[in-house]
Amino acid sequence: MEAKVVKKSSLSERFVSFWRAFAKQWQLQMMAIPGIVYMIIFSFIPIYGLTIAFKNYTVIDTIGGAQWVGWDNFEIIMKDRYFWQSVVNTLGISFLKLAFGFVLPIIISIMIFELRDSVFKRVVQTISYLPHFLSWIILGGMLITWFSSTGMINQLLNMIGIAADQNHMLDVGKYWWIAALSDVWKEAGWGTILYLATMSKIDPTYYEAAKMDGASRLRQTWSITIPMMRNIISLNLILTVSGLFNSNLDQTLVLMNSQNQPKAEVINSYVYRIGLMQGDFSYATAVGLGVAVISVILLAITNIATKKLNDNQSVL
């Protein structure tokens, strides 16, 4: 048997092949160019600014001319108790969001998928999506009013016989729950979009065969719907876990006050306060860089874990 020799194309041949392919789909390529330029300007060029984390940078310095201090900023971070308190708050709120906010969109999407009345289904979808399109300025104002001493929450508690007249937004012990559940309320409906799109592509013959075998709707959901959603569920889990250290800054700035700050200060708001309000750009950049590195590590670990659950097939 003769061995088949694979001839490697030269650099010039690959260059010509590239431009031929580009010419065939130049309309699509032109549509992609603005996105590429945007990423270069706002994602790749700013990477140079990360060197600030290793310098003593002030507003009167240039990035290149600032004094190098090595790991000094990171050593300060390790000893900063306010930073570590923000880490605890971030993880506490993020784990609550993960516990409720990851599962709830799956449940809601399955419930919407099972609806047979198309009009009612569209109404439910619209209502569930609506909070996502409202800014935290609006929702924060609503929550502050609802949880005030004379707000809706206390009125409902009084109606069921529970005496309540306190401002819940000033209660430090309740802030994590308020922040986590309000974020879940805002984003749960929007999070169903990917799941509904995935379920719409499931072959109906699977359900017809399951009906013939006597499977109930619950069994069909457990044995057909959820396994078919495995890849998108894994992808969302990876993105959610990798973002555990990135709490919602808009929400925090709206809901945080002087009373609940010990439990409301998260890493993003801490970086905002130290970097922009106090002008310590080097320290804030060092915090942001450390969080980014940890997030990448979490992403890699979660990807490996989900890969083992998906028959060694990665969703990334």
TrEMBL record:
Q: Specify the ABC transmembrane type-1 domain's residue ranges.
A: 87-302
One GO cellular component term noted in the UniProt record for this chain: plasma membrane
InterPro entries xrefs: MetI-like (IPR000515), MetI-like_sf (IPR035906), UgpAE/MalFG_permease (IPR050809)
Judging by the UniProt lineage, the source's domain of life is: Bacteria
What Pfam families does the database record attribute to this sequence? BPD_transp_1
Annotated localization: Cell membrane
Bilayer disposition of the protein: Multi-pass membrane protein
Read off the CDD domains from this record.
Answer: TM_PBP2
Q: What is its main location?
A: membrane
GO BP term (any one): transmembrane transport
Bilayer-crossing residues are 28-50, 87-113, 133-153, 228-245, 281-301
- Keyword vocabulary terms for this entry: Cell membrane, Membrane, Transmembrane, Transmembrane helix, Transport
Q: Which family does it belong to?
A: Belongs to the binding-protein-dependent transport system permease family.
* Official protein name in the record: ABC transmembrane type-1 domain-containing protein
